[in-house]
Amino acid sequence: FSYRLQTAFCEQLIECLVKARTKNDECLSSHVSMSSRDAKHECRNETLHNQFKQLIEQRTAHYETCLRAKAPSAIPIENAKKKAKCDAIMRKHPVKRDSSLDERQTRRSLKKDKKRGQAAQKSCFREARKIKLQCSQLAKCCSVSKQ
Length: 147
Fold this sequence. Notes:
Layout lengths: L1 H36 L8 H25 L9 H13 L6 H14 L4 H23 L8
Helix pairs in contact: 1-2, 1-5
C-alpha cells in the first residue's frame, strides 16, 4: 500500500510540473505579446534571454524525464510525521482536479482584465508561482525527486 502511495506522490509531482510549465509558458507568451506592443519593455539582449529560457526548459524537461524513469523505484516514507504531512499535502492538492473549471475561470478573468493587461500579467505569474510552490511541497514527498 505505501509503495503505491509513494508512486502516487511522484506521479502527482510530475503532473504538477507539467501544469506549472504550461502555466509559465502561457504567462510568458502573453508577456511577449504585451511587450511587443509596448516599446518601453523591450528586451535589451533578446538572444541571451532566449538562450536562458532554453536552458530552463531543458532543465525542466530533464527533471521530468528523470522523475518518470525513477518513480517506479521510489522508496516509501518511513517517518510517521513526514507521512502524515505528505498525506495532508495530497489532500490539499488532489491529483485530479476539474481543469476545465480552472480554464473557464482563467479565460473569464483574462477577458475581464484585458483592459488592464499588467494586472492580468501579474495575476498569471502569481498563479504560476503558486503552482510551483505546490510542486516544491510535493517534491518533499517523492523520494526520487532528490536524486
